[in-house]
Design a protein that fits this description.
Order of helices and strands: HHHHH
Keywords: Signal
Pfam family, one: LTXXQ
Organism: Photobacterium chitinilyticum
Number of strands: 0
Helix content: 55-70%
Number of helices: 5
Strand content: under 5%
Radius of gyration: 22 Å
GO cellular component, one term: periplasmic space
Low-confidence stretches: 26-63
InterPro entries: LTXXQ (IPR012899)
Length: about 170
């Protein structure tokens, strides 16, 4: 009787674990695992996670500048910008392209760091992470300013399109 209960509990536990892994595996396959066990900062859209609206169709290997260009072109077409709004759009587009290049460099730095971090002291690892966070913060600040300028130049209908698209580029 005890052997039968143990066997049933064991089989049930294995089945539950297998089901949990089957459900979670697709999320983990897209990149490094994050602190809480889910997709990490190097997965998905802009190498820092992100929603499907951020960069639809981006590859697991990273950001392709061509993908961003296509998305910017599609978004511009949807917005139907006036000549006056075009100036803000051009400024925004320049920032987005600059950020995409910066994000590719950031991703490469992170990959190189992960490969060499085992030999670094803890203070050097923390300094590296602090430096990278500072760069990303500066990038986000620049992106946010450009997006805000563009957004303020749009009509309420155009703002709604941008709100729905959720395009956040690479900051």
């Amino acid at each position: 009787m005890k052997y039968k209960q143990t066997l049933i509990i064991g089989i049930g536990s294995i089945a539950c674990l297998t089901a949990a892994l089957a459900i979670a595996a697709p999320k983990w396959q897209s990149g490094m695992t994050g602190m809480m066990g889910g997709p990490g900062m190097m997965s998905g859209a802009c190498a820092m996670g992100g929603s499907p609206g951020m960069l639809k169709g981006s590859s697991p290997q990273g950001q392709d500048i061509g993908v961003i260009q296509t998305q910017l072109d599609e978004l511009k077409s949807q917005l139907k910008l006036s000549k006056e709004q075009q100036v803000r759009w051009d400024e925004f587009k320049l920032v987005v392209k600059r950020q995409a290049g910066s994000m590719l460099a950031h991703r490469q730095e992170m990959l190189e760091f992960m490969q060499s971090s085992q030999t670094l002291t803890l203070p050097k690892r923390l300094a590296f992470h602090s430096d990278m966070m500072g760069k990303r913060f500066a990038s986000m600040t620049s992106y946010s300013a450009a997006l805000t300028d563009l957004y303020q130049s749009l009509t309420p209908e155009q703002q709604g399109i941008l709100d729905q698209d959720g395009f956040m580029g690479c900051y």
